[in-house]
Amino acid sequence: MDLGRQGWLAAVVAALTLGAFAPAAGAATAQVTDDGLEQVLHFTAAPGELNNLAVSGPDTTQADYRLSERGAGVTITPGIGCTAVTASSVGCAPTGLDRIEITLDDGADELFLYSADIPVNADGGAGADLLEDLEIATGAPARSFAGGEGDDFMRAGIISTLPHDYHGGPGMDSVAYAYRTGPQAISLDDVADDGAPAEGDNVHSDVEHVLGGSGADTIVGSGGDEWLVGNEGADTIQGMGGADKLEASGCDADVLDGGAGADTLALGGNTKAQGGPDDDHFRSDIDVCAPGSGDEVNGGDGADLADFGAATGALSVSLDDVADDGFGGKDNFHSDVEDVNGGDGGMVLIGSAVPNMLTGGAGDDLLDGRGGADQLSGGAGTDVADYSSRTVPVNLSLDGSDNDGAAGEGDGIWVDVENLRGGSADDVLAGGAGNNVLDGGLGADTIGGGAGVDAVDYFNRTAAVSVTLNGGAGDDGQAGEGDMIAADIEGAFGGLGADTLTGNAADGFLSGFEGNDELSDGGGADRLDAGAGDDTIDSVDGAVDVDVCGAGMDKVNSDPVDTVAADCEPAGTPQTDSPSDPATPTTTPGSPKTPTTTPVVPIDHVAPVASLSVRAGQRLRGLRSGGLKVSVKSNETGTIAAALSAEKSTRRAFKRLGRPLKVVLAKGQADAVAGARETITLRLSRQGRRALRGFTAGKFKLVVTVTDRAGNKLTITRHLGL
């Protein structure tokens, strides 16, 4: 051997030893193998790299199979049958190929399969991988996706003629048919009958998360814990065994069946939901759908929960098998649902004959457990435990003990409830450590306050009441009622009648509201507010009081140190009601102890119910000349305010003409009398006349707000063309 040949051989050996002809360190490889039976194109990722692999087959733009890495810094080393296109892309000859095997490794890898006319098997390996089929050609062969370890996401393609095999492996693995618009059937049972009709996919039982498309899908779980999502369309979803999460959406007619296990069922706006034999959780939606639509919820066995935590507006839920629940009052939460969680908008929560757990939110909630040993928790806000439906005596106390309700009932009113309302029998009500409002209802009630500034509430009475805050036995309420108000009650709310309210030596308040009331201070720094009517106030007690009269022929006897509002008349003087703010004092308050407002308000958590009608045939010229006439009928006494503004199309015309855009064009108001229809005439403001100058027609928004005596509001909106 000559020295030249010997040197060349040594160089080859050294190169092999150093790996000069091996794949680049950290590089993926692509090569074709042939065992005499089949030729297989293999792609193998390198450990530690983050793959973003695109695969496409021969077409009019390329003659080979193209494997391209889009991950930062990831390269592909070509082997037998493949050539480099770039450092991160290879082309492999298609001749004789039988299938493609893709093996990804650790890391959150991504595979996008654009096209292939031979079978493709892909394994995501460890990590949270994305495997997506983007094939758009029909008649392509089967694919098999295996997620491997980690939480993997596998997305089915648009074409529904390719049978796929989906294995999840360990982790929370997902298969999504979200691209599909037709009906899909997916069952996690290891049978090749999934996808579109006759498609023959096999979504295996080691997949835990399924997402349907926009069609009417059927999704069936297994015995494990799954998350099954219908998306759009009228979907039917069955959880089977395990602690499943089932999700409907929108206003399509969805059906959810949790089956065995403690399931969570997320409702759409028109969902029939069945919990099953265990403790299920129904999560309410915020959708309001067309008339005739609504949720129907059966809990089944177990302790089931209706959760309205997403609600920000006021609504009512009663577990009474009547379709009057939720947003729009169309849902039906049946009596086999036991517990309710409210939202933050102020809730009315009513239980059933069995033990219920009713939990309010951040708003002012009304909790009525009905029968059974109930637990009532108000949460934030000013909440009331309401027993007004009861006809037998109840004993209620805000001490947090399970000793409330009728004899032996065992309700527990939590300490985050502030107010109590009794029934029509002889009840006992006791306040707690804070400021409480106590309404005994009809019957000879015994009412005590405890610590804080507490008030007895007769706000909803139409008959005259007589109240003395001295603990005298059986002399308070309506004629012959026989209530006993303890001396640790500091305030009283009258009603619609001609009430007589007498305070005690504590600092407190008396509020007469409507009617010709008589308010007498018994000592202490008090606020005496007579309200509307021809009232008499006597605050002569030596303490510093605040006297407020309201509309009517009012008479006041007061101490020199008292603050008397400008609309009050001293005893023996003629009526001289001032048009100024009735709460404006004529003197400066003389004591910081004297309340300028009441620390509590009457119990009334329910907004009024009202109907609105607009006279037909009204025109814009009629608005200019005589105003716009609307009529409102409310079930409660209060006030009505109406405002007219321009819709977007009319505001655009305003803008072109340089007119003001956000202006109230017309407004009107009236008093509401319960059960009576009131006519309101909206008259143009000066700005409204300027804005509409030269217009013969337009589109407008009418907003009517009905406010009851307690300040609860109902807003009705109508869109008008004039």
Query: In angstroms, what is the radius of gyration?
Result: 38 Å
What's the CATH class label of the domain at 610-721?
Answer: Mainly Beta
Number of helices: 4
The gross shape turns out to be elongated
Biggest pleated-sheet summary: 18 strands, mixed
| β-sheet strand percentage | 25-35%
The CATH topology of the domain at 610-721: Immunoglobulin-like
| Arithmetic mean of pLDDT | 91
At CATH level 2, the architecture of the domain at 610-721 is: Sandwich
Number of strands: 61
Q: What are the low-pLDDT stretches, counting only 5+ consecutive residues below 50?
A: 1-25, 572-592
Helix-and-strand structural type: mainly beta
Assembly category: single chain
> Percentage of helical residues?
under 10%
Termini distance? 109 Å
Name its key features.
single chain, 722 residues, mainly beta, Immunoglobulin-like, 18-stranded mixed sheet, twelve-stranded parallel sheet, 5% helix, elongated, disordered N terminus
Write a structural description.
Mean pLDDT is 91; it is low at 1-25 and 572-592. The protein has an 18-stranded mixed beta sheet, with no helix packed on it. It has a domain at 610-721: Immunoglobulin-like (Sandwich). The radius of gyration is 38 Å and the shape is elongated. It is 5% helix and 33% strand. The protein is mostly beta strands and 722 residues long. The protein is built from 4 helices and 61 strands. 46% of the residues are buried. β60 (699-708) and β61 (713-721) form a beta hairpin.
